[in-house]
Structures are given as structure tokens and as C-alpha cells.
Amino acid sequence: MKVDKLSVSFDxxxxxxxxxxxxxxxxxxxxWLAEAAAAKLRAEALADFLEGWEAEHSxxxxxxxxxxxxxxxxxxxxxVDPAA
Length: 84
Description:
The chain is mostly helical. It is 62% helix and 0% strand.
């Protein structure tokens, strides 16, 4: 499998936390970081999609967001800001 090697820098506290999280999850550092980066990219793509959808249709209501959270089994302990 072809890989793209990158060099990244973190402040020491973040680097320590990343290494601990990877170890705790039984993952190598590269795999853990790749998974985290992929999750961030998916979240950004979803936010972009929703922004476009709301611009075309209308902003999602609090009731629609609550129904979606319930359907997905997500906790709604804090209000969701659809503009965020």
C-alpha cells in the first residue's frame, strides 16, 4: 500500500495526549492520527453540505435537530447551534 509520509509538530502536552490516546486504543500513532484526521474531514464535509442545504431550503429547526439526534441516539445535553 502506498503511503504519504508527513512531518507534523505539536506542543508537548498535545503530543503526550495523542500518544497516550493511541496506546489506550491499541493503535499505532500514525493510524490513530489518520483516523482522527479522517473524522475531522468527514465532519467538515457534513458541515459544508448542511450549510448548502440550509441555504437552499431553510435552516433546520430545533425540533428537526432534536428528532435527528434521537434517531441517531445522540445526547442532546447542550443546545445545537445549526450555524456552528
